[in-house]
Specification:
The structure is a homodimer of 381-residue chains. Chain A is α/β, with parallel strands linked by helices. Chain A has eleven helices and 17 strands. In chain A, the strands form four sheets. Chain A has a five-stranded mixed β-barrel. In chain A, strand 1, helix 1 and strand 2 form a beta-alpha-beta unit. The two termini of chain A are 42 Å apart. Strand 17 of chain A pairs parallel with strand 15 of chain B, so a sheet runs across the interface.
Chain lengths: 381, 381
């Protein structure tokens, strides 16, 4: 299914950093730029490729940090230069999305956009495209729409979307959102899972540029004022953008559009809609997630070999894993990785760092990053 | 105590290779050349330094392979160039020792030599020197002498020396040897340990050059003939040495000098003597042995950092070991090694290889080397 409505745009947010895949991900080269998918595809590259079923590359926008523009160019060489929108400084998603909406509304006052994270993996791409087409369709009718992922475990690392009930306008698959819920503790997460009315917040949003700019005017006037100024004086972006309020779009706008908010003065027409997405979503939130993206060998070892140069078919050498099982090995150098009698570890080797930990401790990587941040190890970050 | 008898020489055998410390040890740079001791000293360097208490550097001989001459020069820069004796090809210890004896007997017909492995660690150096002085003293009286180490565990990786009884000539601490015993199985090793009359074969031998050449004439005439030829025509060494019988001195000579040998036609005067050595001997036979050479941190992690260049005080970066204990980490590159929740592993990182295994499996390194030898990984050996 494709959706080549001439007013459809995709805005991919590629400015984020993160520490959960350190030492593979770095400040200057975060997760979305790493060749971590089978065949060496990057998450950003795959995101752009997938959405070509919805709109052509000419209407694909990548929003990124100044320090990552070159990575974007190399990762998406077909992207028109004018479609890279640079955040002068990271100010969270609300200013970033506001900037994208402003940019597109100038180019096409009828622009409808899908705002997508750049660093998620989608296992079932046809299902993904069907969901996005439906979400864009609702956005064209004026709705703010998000996609929620059916939880499969009591995950404490995600925000949740509490579903209120079917869209009263009767559009199939569209539901009203009662509330956006912060990351829960373990017990809450278990309750959400068993309740069946909570979905994971995927961070994907769909709306017309005009609608989101109106919502920002209502809910985040400080940003709206700034965007109005930049509409008149785009040359001031570098100087003024750093003064935008650093706040997420979820917190600034989306949670204001839930039907369950305290004031309850929201009419159903204005409420945010959610579509349930069931398309093998994976946020690649830790090294452990890589096991789902790369088939294991007969001993359940999952191996990622990055390009390293002309030898070995251009990839890092194939590891020698003797009497070893259940490991995730990610090698990004010419060094041969060997193990004897090792089970269920993450082992990753980069030019300047080696990290070894049990798969079950993969969420603790940030503790190493903290030590480096405070202990003179900045050059490794 | 020192022994500067003008006829005393030390011949250090530094030609051996080995796979038990792969990937740190390589064919071109085996264990004795690695800076694995505290402060970055090498086993060969420490061996030379220790024996300076017995004879000056001018009478210290290092026997090595042609491919390792440069490593010897760099490791022992004070060694006179003429004191590096090159084996054209490795033919085990009998030809190597024969060559050294021939070389020294030409230089000094009264030469008495200590033949020492280059790749052992000695914890108690004063005790070591006392034992060697006693062994050299007996060698000057015409004996063939060896040093046996009191077993501390039922080790199956060493040969044993069965002690017959005190030297009838009454020299204190000297014993007659009944037999040299091959590496035992587990049950035999346990029996040797409890019997109390078995010592580990240290591979250290002491004799006059004249005596060992006579023994070779008796027990290995093929080598003796070759040595006679080389005495007349030293320029033929490169061409003829490869034809020497590849056999160990233990097997060719020493075990013929035990009083318990079947034929029993050996008189006590000719029998080999053994001195018990108790000086913290460690053959550094696996990565696990390094824990004894390097003090652990409060979490019992033992860390070796090799010189890698100007940064970090010239050493590999100090590892970040979070909630990790009992590990042996040996880093030889600028890469930062980090672990989270890892216990009792050996982790070693070199320019072209990374090896990870439990300490208890440190003896299995050769299995990786086998895979590489037969699987196209020659360049890593």
């Amino acid at each position: 299914m494709s959706d080549f409505s001439p007013h459809t745009y995709v805005a991919i947010l590629a400015g984020g950093g993160g520490t959960r895949l350190w030492p593979q991900s770095r400040r200057r080269r975060p997760k979305q730029f790493l060749p971590l998918l089978p065949g060496g595809e990057t998450l950003l590259g795959a995101t752009v490729r997938r959405t070509l079923a919805l709109c052509p590359i000419e209407r694909t926008l990548v929003v990124t940090a100044a320090s990552q523009v070159e990575e974007v160019r190399q990762t998406v060489p077909d992207l028109p230069e004018g479609n890279i929108l640079v955040e002068p400084i990271g100010r969270n998603t609300a200013p970033c999305i506001g900037l994208a909406a402003l940019f597109l509304s100038r180019r096409d006052p009828q622009a409808v956009l899908a705002v997508l994270p750049s660093d998620h993996h989608i296992g079932d791409e046809p299902a993904f495209i069907r969901v996005l087409a439906a979400a864009l369709s609702a956005a064209r009718e004026g709705h703010v729409v998000t996609v929620g992922i059916r939880p499969t475990r009591p995950e404490t690392g995600y925000g949740y979307i509490q579903v209120a009930g079917p869209d009263p306008a009767g559009e199939a698959g569209l539901y009203l959102v009662k509330a956006f819920v912060e990351k829960p503790d373990r017990d809450q997460a278990a309750a959400y899972l068993s309740a069946g009315t909570y979905l994971w917040n995927s961070g994907m949003f769909f709306f017309s540029a005009a609608r989101i700019l109106r919502e920002l005017r209502t809910h985040l006037p400080a940003l709206s004022d700034l965007l109005d100024e930049l509409r008149e004086h785009p040359e001031r972006t570098a100087a003024r953008y750093p003064q935008a309020p650093a706040i997420s779009i979820d917190y600034a706008v989306m949670e204001k559009l839930g039907t369950g908010r305290a004031k309850n003065d929201l009419d159903a027409a204005a409420a945010i809609r959610v579509i349930e997405g069931d398309f093998g979503w994976n946020d690649v939130g830790s090294f452990a997630a890589l096991a789902d993206l790369h088939p294991g060998d007969p001993d359940h070892n999952h191996v990622l070999l990055d390009p390293v140069g002309p030898g070995d078919g251009g990839l890092a050498p194939k590891p020698v894993l003797l009497r070893s099982s259940g490991n995730i090995v990610w090698a990004s150098t010419g060094q041969l990785v060997s193990t004897i009698g090792i089970s269920d570890l993450v082992i990753t080797v980069t030019e300047d760092a080696v990290l070894i930990m049990p798969r079950e401790k993969a969420q603790e990587v940030r503790d190493v990053v903290d030590v480096l941040s405070h202990g003179g190890g900045e050059r490794y970050l």
